[in-house]
Amino acid sequence: MLLDQQQLDFSVEMQAKSYSLLKWVGKSVSSGLLSFQTAHQYSTLPLAAADWIDKHYLNIPEAARVDPADIPVFANFFSTYLENSFDLIANPGKIKFSPDAHCFCPMCSWMIDAPNLKTKSLSTADKKRALRMQIHSVLQLGIDTGAKLDESRAEAIVSDYGEATALLAYGHDLIQRLDAIANGPAVLALWRRFAWKSSGSPKPNFRLSTKMILNAESELRALVAA
Q1: How far apart (Å, rounded) are the C-alpha atoms in residues 80 and 68?
Q2: Which of 12, 92, 108, 213 lies at 20 to 30 Å from 37 by C-alpha?
Q3: What angle separates helix 5-31 from helix 162-177, to the nearest 10 degrees?
Q4: Cα–chain-centroid distance for residue 136?
Q5: Would 69 be classed as within a structural domain?
Q6: pTM
Q7: Average of pLDDT values for 22-38?
Q8: Which domain holds residue 11?
Q9: pLDDT of res. 91
Q10: Do 27 and 76 fall within a single domain?
Q11: What is the mean pLDDT of the chain?
């Protein structure tokens, strides 16, 4: 079915707050405020996460705090981050650091503590799965609007409108994550199709909005109907 604005608004809000909480957990592990065993246990199990969030509610930063009634759904969404995008590492060790990343020779770089929170690496299989998610979202749009659309046409639309189809697929995934359904690192591949520049770096100050996703759906709906 077509994306519902109210449900999408809620999903986007849960995403932003989950990411804020995840960053806080990573920093708290590094500072010793939160033990790795506790963070890792509760971040991977939705029910345990809900219990942990409830117990530590007042300690959680305001930007990462939800209405108490929304804690179960919030915990569902939060738990998907460690399936889709990030790993919490107990003993990350050291990494080589260079200011402005201009030179990594021994004279211009030194070793610093690696962060406990690390972005997952994307495999070829993850990228292929992301592509399938985009194609499926276009085919589903055809079904939802009564358009006659075969797979070859859907593949062509994804090829020509990669950013819009990634946004549409990501929008559907956001709603699934409210039920703790995680599609793995393929979701991270989708994110980079619209939140990153073609040069391979994040867009400065990018912030996902419901409007972006619904505009993409509207654009693609017109193409599917043509």
Answers
A1: 19
A2: 12
A3: 80
A4: 19
A5: yes
A6: 0.82
A7: 63
A8: 5-93
A9: 64
A10: yes
A11: 84
